[in-house]
Amino acid sequence: MKILVTGGLGFIGSHVVVELLNKSYDVIVVDNLSNSTIDVLEGIRTICNKKPEFEKLDLRDKLAVSDFFVRNQDINGVIHFAASKAVGESVENPLLYYENNINTLVYLLQELQKLPKSNLIFSSSCTVYGQADVLPITESAPVKPAESPYGNTKQVGEEIIADVCKVDYSLNAIALRYFNPIGSHHSGLIGELPLGTPQNLVPYITQTAIGQREQLSIFGDDYPTIDGTAVRDYIHVMDLANAHVVALERLIKHKMVVNFETFNIGTGTGSSVLEVVKTFEKATGLELNYKIVQRRDGDVTAAYADTSRANNIMGWKSKFTLQEALESAWKWQQNAIAAKES
Ligand code: UDP
Questions:
Q1: What is the per-residue pLDDT for 338?
Q2: pTM score > 0.90 for this model?
Q3: Rounded to whole angstroms, how far apart are CA atoms 87 and 69?
Q4: Average pLDDT of the chain, as a whole number
């Protein structure tokens, strides 16, 4: 079985490639290296003792995408990660996000439609729920108006796939709505590499702990939560990677009930920002320098998944604890610094 992973050198993509290679899939990665580096291939090779095929490809180049599929007619499934993901940047430059995240999806679907049969996994996000009225959040919770162009690209992306699936039964697709992916492969050889100042909590924590950042700012302690800080569902990226393999098997083995399905991928447990900080301190024995500042615009109070659908229908469940995920993030951070210094 040959699987195309777009954006396969990025944070989540690289962990999925490792899981696929370990399950003996043939993997071909395309990536435009806009938010990843070619060194990631070496990390994957060291972990798996083999490398995926790699092609530098920008999915915004429609002709190049078409040419790629002409040369690769034997693809059995596509896992589509290639997209931009910085919320703030999407507000500043919405057209970049619509081009990167929507045009590319359309080009990909146009090529998949030419194949007699195709399977697609789409990276979606819990951001589609906004502040849900009911917690934990089930897949039938209403999709709320998007807070940013980035969030909108996830909503519209799902809608585009749903519309195509309504008329094209040769396409089977699953959208995975990720909650908050954190951590790294236990080897510490691949992980999250934020460009510039991290926007996400865990990279900010690890960079502060290692001395690259002065202090973590906790955005708000006046939310109606257990300790006043906002609550999220942090999921180990290896659990998330495994969810993709399980979803892929569901597609390939024709276990789908309808040809477009959606699953929440989280742990089902909410943790506050302060709980994450305390768990990190416990995992590492370090004391983290932090201060409480104002809320960040666009942040919701609390979001955590009802994972019953993924558990019962897809047969997937998360295994790792928050502490294990934070330990792996810390290991990766230490390795990344060591690699920089050597
Ligand atoms: N957060 C924080 N300080 C930071 C980054 C994030 O307090 O430097 C908080 C943020 O307000 C949210 C949680 O951590 O409540 C998770 O934020 P992240 O950006 O990692 O993920 P999001 O849920 O926004 O996608």
A1: 72
A2: yes
A3: 31
A4: 96
